[in-house]
Amino acid sequence: MNHLAVNISMIFTEVPLIERFALAKKHGFRHVEIQFPYVLSISDIQKQLDENELSLCLINVPTGDLMQGGCGLASILEKATEFRLALEQAIDYAKALQVPSVNILAGKQPTHLEYSTCFETLVKNLRLASVMLSEHDIQPVFEMINGKDMPNFLIQTIEQAHQVLNAVQHPALKMQFDCYHMQMMDENILQALHKNIHQIGHIQFADCIGRHEPDTGSIPFAEIFSWLKQSSYTGFIAAEYKPSEHSENSFVWKSKYFP
């Protein structure tokens, strides 16, 4: 599978972000994803990509206070202007760095707002993002995140993701499918992939429980990777896990499943 990627926001954290590109190349990766690349300049990222013969396959739209425990931007009507500015920043990076996909995180439902209100705002923002990103041939995706790790996250299940797709009604918008989050929500991953593969634009993986590298938990990665290799899916599949030991010692799965 040529589209195997490594998330250098979660892996190789033993060194600064700017040094992780070289480690990705060292371990045989051709593609990387970065959750929030905005701490680095576009020129610095491009230099690292060029020097290490890498492509950047996914970034996230900035999420405001979400990673600090807040509710984020995409589902809060009062933050519409802030969301649009964040979206424009993501587009600037994606265009310059030729990033094929951008992830829009729904964020959390605040205690003072109804779910329906937040959902309506999210739909409007995802529609806007889908229009703006697709104008530049960038794939918009949105992610389901389990409510155990992130309580009150607005979109947690595949059923909710289908509701989003049906409401947004934009042909470019697809799901970002994270095997770890789906296992945490008690989904049957193989069945879910088989049923929804044509609506999935990006795949990530970590084992469960613990969110460590494959074969440290209960997810049947041998079956999942085998099925994906034979499926019609042509997108990226990215390692996004917290290494159970030093990052550089966490790639036994790579030689096993992607020799």
From TrEMBL:
Q: Which residues does the Swiss-Prot or TrEMBL record annotate as the active site?
A: 143 (proton donor/acceptor), 240 (proton donor/acceptor)
State one molecular function term (GO): hydroxypyruvate isomerase activity
One Gene Ontology biological process: glyoxylate metabolic process
Q: Where would I find the Xylose isomerase-like TIM barrel domain in this sequence?
A: 21-245
Q: Which UniProt keywords apply?
A: Isomerase, Pyruvate
Entry-linked InterPro entries: HyI-like, Sugar_Epim/Isomerase, Xyl_isomerase-like_sf, Xyl_isomerase-like_TIM-brl
Q: Does the keyword Isomerase apply?
A: yes
Q: May I ask which residue range the UniProt record assigns to the signal sequence?
A: none
Question: A single Pfam family, by name?
Answer: AP_endonuc_2
User: Which SUPFAM superfamilies does the annotation name?
Assistant: Xylose isomerase-like
- UniProt family annotation: Belongs to the hyi family.
Q: Which protein are we looking at?
A: Hydroxypyruvate isomerase
Read off the lineage from the record.
Bacteria, Pseudomonadati, Pseudomonadota, Gammaproteobacteria, Moraxellales
